Structure formats: C-alpha cells, structure tokens
Amino acid sequence: MGKTILIVEDEQNIVDILSFNLSREGYDTLEAYDGPTGLQLALEQNPDLILLDLMLPGMNGFDVCRKVRQSGSSTPILMLTAREEEADKVLGLELGADDYITKPFSMRELLARVKANIRRVEMAPPAAQAEESGDVLRLGRVTIDREKAVVTKDGRPLELTQREYDLICYLAAQPGKVFSREALMEHVWNYEGYVGDVRAVDVAVRRLREKIEDDPASPKFIVTKRGMGYLFGG
Q1: What is the mean pLDDT of residues 144-148?
Q2: I need a surface site. Which of 20, 89, 168, 227 has the fewest CB within 10 A?
C-alpha cells in the first residue's frame, strides 16, 4: 500500500507540481489549501508525512504544526517556507516540525527528504547498534529500553518525540564518542551525505536537554564538544 502525503499549500501551481512528482514516486496525496482544512485532514486521515507551508489562509503553518503535535501525532512534518529568517525556521522546529525546506526548492532534494523522513519512522530499531548486548542500555541514571522504545531517567519515563528518541539512542549507543552535526543529520535524520543547514540538530538537542537534564544550561548527558559536535556523557 502506498504512503500518503498531505500537502498543505495555498498556491495551486505548487500543489500541482508537488502532487505530480510525488505521484510519480508512488505516493498517494491529499491536498489542502488553507490551515483549518490541512489540520482537519492531518488529524482525520493520519497521513504518513505532511508538507506544510507556513503562510496559509485561516491558520498559519506554525499553528497547524502546534495543534498536530498537541493531538499526540508524531507524523513527520516538513515545512515549506519562502522565509529566510532563522527565527522562523527555529520556531517551526521547536513547535515540532521535523525539517524545513526553503522555496524555491529542488524537487530532487524535496523528494529525498520526504523519503528520508518516512524511512526514519519505519526504522526499528534505530540505525545505531548498541555495544551492550540485549535491548536495554543502562547508562548511569538513564536507561533505554529499545524493545519497548522507552527512555527512563531515575526510573521515570521521559516523553520523547520519535526524533528525540532516535537521537538519544544513536548518541548513547557509543558513550563518549563525538558526532558532528553533519553525521547526525546523515544517521539520525537519514540524509545521506548531508551538506547544508544543520540547525535542526541543535534544536532537537535543546529540546532533548530540556527533558533529560537536571539543568539544561549545564548538560551532563548530551554534551557539546565545541567546534566538533555532540556526545553522550551519561
């Protein structure tokens, strides 16, 4: 059965181009031309991925994204934006979007990102292989049960998004090893040979720290190695 992509975009020509190219790749598509309709379809149809424009009539993309995440949905959201402002991109990621692509975009790049985000959801277990045998990693105060897909700290379950879970699993599989942002984009975001904006990694790390660290401003678990990347300190 084909994967379904929800396109939420108010420009007819862009919707037509996206729908045509996605269909050629074997995807089914749903279309919405305003925010409220997009939100309704996202909640009722449970698509495999959402392509979400920011500037929409009725309800902007930020609000649609926030409401989708508040509903408990973990459907990958790829933002389409004509804005270059860094703050807009970061806000979208912090509201729960998985990635963004700036207009005008390469169709080849967009299709690659769609495929990568859908593949990430399908992957089980995460790409990294733990050094400890079995499906449970115990790293000090943090335990990762990969069979149940549960992360606990001091015995308390943490409410993580799929991306945050994938990220901590990947880092914790090799404690103390530094991973560059580009490497994390390649192995956690599944963007092979990624070269480009890596801000999505920083946002995901910040959100993860807010959930796992005693003091996010002075992290002990997800540690920054200045000029190099991130490591799991435990």
Answers
A1: 86
A2: 227
